[in-house]
Amino acid sequence: MVAPVNVTATSAMRKKAADVALASFECFSSNSEKLHDTVPESVISASRAAKYRPILKNVTTTSAAYAASLFALLTFLATPHGVGCVLFGIQLCSAFISLDYVGEHPFTAFLIGGFITGIVSVATFLPFARFWDKLYNENPQARCQQSKSYAVYAKPFFGRLEVQLAISNLLLAAFLTSAIAVTAIVAPTWVKIYSKVEDYGWPYFFFSSILYFLFIDLWAYLGHRVLHFPWLYKRVHKVHHSWKQTTAFVGLGLHPFDMMILQAGVYTAFFLFPIHIAGVALNLLYIHYHNVIDHSGVYCESWLPWQPSSLYHDDHHRCFHMNYGQSLTIWDELGGTFFKSTATYNEGTFSDFTAPGNKSKGSH
C-alpha cells in the first residue's frame, strides 16, 4: 500500500478509495501532512541484509495511500502498452474507424493510433510521476540516499533532461505499440494476442499471464545486463546512469536505443505464444507502476513476496553494475550480480557473463 503522506479526507472518501485502490507498496508515513519519520541507515543496511524484503513492522497507512494507489491504477493509461490494450479491446487503434479501414490503410491507421496513444500516455504519465517527484523533494528523510540528493526543482520542469527523455520515449513506445496493434489486425496469425477467454480457457489464461510476466522479467534482466557491457554502457546506457540519485522521471530517462532493447521483450512475446489482452494489460500496469516507484528515490517496501523494496534498484544506480533485475531478484542471484556487502562497486568496474559479480576494488 503506498502511504507517502497524510491528506485530509472524509471517511466516506477514504472507504471509497480503499475499495477500488490497487496498492502494493508501503512507505514510511506519519499523521502529519509530510513524512517526518526517518529512514535510518540501520534500516537501509537491514533491508540489504534481508535481500530487499520487507523488514518494517506496523507501518502506518493514511488516506493518501488510497488516493495514490487509485491514481496509479488510473494511470494504467500512462503506459503506452496500456493504451494499446484499450485500443485492442475496443477496436480503436485507428481512431473510431472500422477494422476494414485498418486493413486498407494500415500506415494511416498506424499514424493515428500512435498519435492517440502518445498524447494520452504523456498526459497521464506526467502527473503520476510528478506526484512522486514532489514526494521526493519535500521528504528528504524518506529517501533511499539521504546523504545525497537530486535538486528536482533546480531547472524548469520541461527543461529537465529526464522529463524530455521520458516524453520522447513514451512517444516512441506509443508508435511501436500502434505498429503491433495494426499488425495484429492486418496479419492476425503473426501476433498471438487474443480477446476471448474461451479460446484457450481459464487455466491457460492464468498460465500464459504468469509466463508472460516471467518472460519479460528475464528479458529485462538479460537486456539490462547486456546494456552494462562496457561498449554499450558507455555509448547508450550511461545516459540512464547520469542520475545516481533517481526520481520518478528517471524511470523513462533512457537513450532511445536503450528503450527499444528493453521494450523488445514486451513485444517479442506477442509473436511466441498466445496471451489474452487482459494478461498483457495487468502485467504492463504492474511493471509501469513499479518502475515509477523503483526510480522515485523514496524508500518503499512491498507486501508482495516476490517484489523487492525500491532500495533494490536505487542501489543499482548508486553502485552501477549489479542488481540488474526488474521485479524479481532471482535472476541476479542466479547470475552472480546480486548485491554483495563484501564487494566494492564503481562505474568503472564492470560485471559480465563470464565473470559474474563485482570482484574489483573501487568505491561505493
Secondary-structure blueprint of this entry?
Elements: H1 11-20, E1 25-27, H2 41-49, H3 63-74, H4 80-90, H5 99-104, H6 106-138, H7 161-186, E2 193-194, H8 202-226, H9 230-235, H10 256-268, E3 275-276, H11 277-294, E4 300-302, H12 311-319, H13 330-335
Parallel strand pairs: 2-3
Antiparallel strand pairs: 1-4
Helix pairs in contact: 1-3, 4-6, 4-7, 4-11, 6-7, 7-10, 8-10, 8-11
Task: Please characterize this protein's 3D structure.
The chain is mainly alpha-helical. It has helices spanning 11-20, 41-49, 63-74, 80-90, 99-104, 106-138, 161-186, 202-226, 230-235, 256-268, 277-294, 311-319, 330-335, and strands at residues 25-27, 193-194, 275-276, 300-302. Strands 1-4 form a two-stranded antiparallel sheet. The radius of gyration is 21 Å and the shape is globular. Residues 1-36, 58-63, 87-96 and 353-364 have low confidence and may be disordered.
Short structural summary:
The protein has 364 residues and is mainly α. It is 51% helix and 3% strand.
Query: Structural class from helices and strands?
Result: mainly alpha
Uncertain residue ranges: 1-36, 58-63, 87-96, 353-364
Sheet-strand content, in percent, reads: under 5%
Cα-to-Cα separation, first versus last residue? 31 Å
Number of helices: 13
- Fraction of residues in H or I helices: 40-55%
Task: Describe the strand arrangement of the main beta sheet, using strand numbers.
Answer: 1-4
Q: State the order of secondary-structure elements, H for helix, E for strand.
A: HEHHHHHHEHHHEHEHH
Overall radius of gyration? 21 Å
Largest sheet: 2 strands, antiparallel
Mean pLDDT: 76
The shape is globular
Number of strand segments: 4
